[in-house]
């Protein structure tokens, strides 16, 4: 098992190097360091000496080979440096925003996954009945609504009219639940329809397998067949689809943090993009890649735990 995990970790190294190379190339393809210097300098008409000093302070005056070396090595050892726009250490801002972002994203992920599996099992149990028809219709209806409509509509309905929680802001400690309640509810509802319908398909595929007919022939009840056998064997495709949705979850958190004024990593990244702060953007892209790779590694580990044949291979 340890060798299996180590192989998966080693596979991630060339991917991270490729991400560092791609961000470096895209930076010079989209904007020059001189244009960034003029944009980030506080004076309206910076002199050439001020521009050169800014380039020197941020390391953009060195040859491209040296810049690329510093860029890659800095990312690999998590030395992100300072912001191009504000001069603030990037790690300080990341530490401040990691808590709110992690809280919102983890609650949306865990609550949404639990709700989707529960609804999918219920719909699969009552397959062919009005419960199944109504559940499928509701899933299609939820899938037909754009994510931004969920955010604006439910923010107005739940926050302003029904007053279930604050519309914007954040507070640390126990009081944080009041500020993340509405974003979590919106995030769960936005992905509930597609996940429930997908998990229902996985469960129905397993229900038609031979081992299910054998279990029924031995007198095992339908509920026990569904929960003990069908759900367990459907976990592999469920895990695959869940990890594939991680990028969409991250993007959803960016929108939620922006609309609800949560001082997380999403709002930090959006501000960096608007100000063309390349140092912050490359750091956030690299961290996002690491989180996605960690999700894939955890998926492989979950495969090995669910299906022993993966470990044998």
Give a written overview of the molecule:
With 313 residues, the chain is mainly alpha-helical. It has two domains: 1-85 and 275-313, no CATH class; 99-274, Orthogonal Bundle (MetI-like fold), CATH 1.10.3720.10. 79% of the residues lie in helices and 0% in strands. It contains 15 helices and no strands. The chain has helices at 2-30, 33-40, 48-57, 64-76, 90-125, 130-143, 147-161, 176-207, 210-217, 222-233, 235-244, 246-260, 265-274, 278-306, 308-312. Helix 1 runs antiparallel to helix 14, helix 8 packs antiparallel against helix 12 (246-260) and helix 13 packs antiparallel against helix 14. It is globular, with a radius of gyration of 24 Å. It starts with a helix and ends with a helix.
């Amino acid at each position: 098992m340890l060798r299996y995990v180590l192989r998966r970790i080693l596979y991630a190294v060339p991917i991270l190097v490729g991400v560092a190379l791609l961000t470096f190339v895209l930076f010079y393809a989209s904007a020059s360091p001189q244009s960034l210097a003029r944009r980030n300098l506080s004076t309206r008409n910076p002199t050439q000496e001020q521009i050169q000093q800014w380039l020197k302070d941020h390391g953009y005056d060195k040859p491209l080979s040296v810049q690329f070396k510093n860029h890659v090595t800095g990312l690999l050892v998590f030395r992100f440096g300072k912001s191009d726009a504000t001069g603030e250490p990037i790690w300080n801002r990341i530490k401040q925003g990691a808590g709110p972002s992690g809280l919102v994203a983890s609650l949306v992920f865990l609550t949404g996954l639990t709700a989707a599996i529960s609804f999918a099992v219920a719909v699969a149990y009552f397959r062919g009945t009005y419960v199944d028809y109504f559940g499928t219709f509701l899933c299609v209806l939820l899938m037909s609504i754009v994510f931004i409509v969920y955010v604006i509509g439910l923010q107005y309905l739940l926050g302003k009219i029904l007053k279930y929680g604050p519309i914007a802001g954040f507070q640390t400690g126990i009081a944080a639940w009041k500020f993340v309640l509405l974003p979590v509810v919106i995030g769960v509802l936005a992905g509930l329809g597609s996940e429930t319908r997908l998990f229902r398909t996985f469960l129905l595929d397993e229900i038609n397998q031979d081992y299910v007919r054998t279990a029924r022939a031995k007198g095992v009840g339908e509920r026990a067949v569904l929960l003990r056998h069908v759900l367990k064997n459907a976990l592999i495709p469920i895990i695959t689809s869940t990890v594939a949705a991680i990028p969409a979850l991250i993007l959803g958190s960016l929108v939620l943090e922006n609309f609800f004024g949560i001082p997380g990593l999403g709002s930090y990244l959006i501000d960096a993009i608007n100000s063309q702060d390349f140092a912050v953007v490359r750091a956030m892209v690299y961290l996002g890649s690491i989180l996605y790779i960690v999700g894939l590694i955890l998926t492989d580990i979950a495969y090995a735990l669910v299906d022993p044949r993966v470990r044998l291979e």
